[in-house]
Amino acid sequence: xxxxxxxxxxxxxxxxxxxxxxxxxxxxxxxxxxxxxxxxxxxxxxxxxxxxxxxxxxxxxxxxxxxxxxxxxxxxxxxxxxxxxxxxxxxxxxxxxxxxxxxxxxxxxxxxxxxxxxxxxxxxxxxxxxxxxxxxxxxxxxxxxxxxxxxxxxxxxxxxxxxxxxxxxxxxxxxxxxxxxxxxxxxxxxxxxxxxxxxxxxxxxxxxxxxxxxxxxxxxxxxxxxxxxxxxxxxxxxxxxxxxxxxxxxxxxxxxxxxxxxxxxxxxxxxxxxxxxxxxxxxxxxxxxxxxxxxxxxxxxxxxxxxxxxxxxxxxxxxxxxxxxxxxxxxxxx
Length: 334
Known about the structure:
The protein is an alpha/beta fold. The chain has helices spanning about 40-45, 100-105, 115-120, 125-135, 150-165, 175-185, 195-205, 240-245, 265-270, 285-295, 315-320, and strands at about 1-10, 10-15, 25-35, 55, 60, 65-75, 85-90, 95-100, 110, 145, 165-170, 190, 205-210, 215-220, 220-225, 245-255, 275-280, 305-310, 330.
């Protein structure tokens, strides 16, 4: 079968590999759509998170946010039928077929033709966004700032707007992604390449100087760090910026993964009573709710899929996902 195989940093190749062989209780899914995730990019750039790939004799197959059609069943598998359109999570979906283990089968969400395979494949990142948005607890009348307008940051925007009338400010370096944020309902967007994001947010929301620790107190209720700290980034981290923006007893939700260590002024954390909350993945209930947001039309994911590629274009697909000014979400359609 066809597959995109990762061999090392910046080295993903189109190859033909063996089709999975089923055991009792397993099912075979023909992959119809699989997105390239941010964690896949960390692997692609630096060889991080190798456990998120299915190992082969040489290399491994990445891809864990996917949808497809059941084409084979191993023995008696309850609740699964040939031809079912389903969305699930696992590893190794940058391929024509993926074997679904009993645990993966338990996570299946079936859907009908009213939702496309490409839309369904964005359920997993939306569930990650939903989990972060819930931690931020947006309420009507509040102001929330999202740092990073990739698929997760834009998903948080969608989740906040689907559940409240909170004002949302999006910060990013990509004019294309900021334009998409405005299209999806962002109240204000700031290009951090053109303006100082902290100064702009404080000018919009007001601020107070806390002379005890020379810290700035903003009036933002919650800030979501969807940018992290890249291995080659120089300057003030987004996490530090977030702490300057947030109000007394406000919340900073850390969603991104960090490729290098960040220095934090813990005196600011203490003085301002900042609640720093880590946000990782999602619960089963959040995964189902994320899909229902898509299927009900409360959240439209179609505008976020900027590119689709065949597996034969594996290298081009990964390189495109790296281009923040051009791509938002790249999806394989095997």
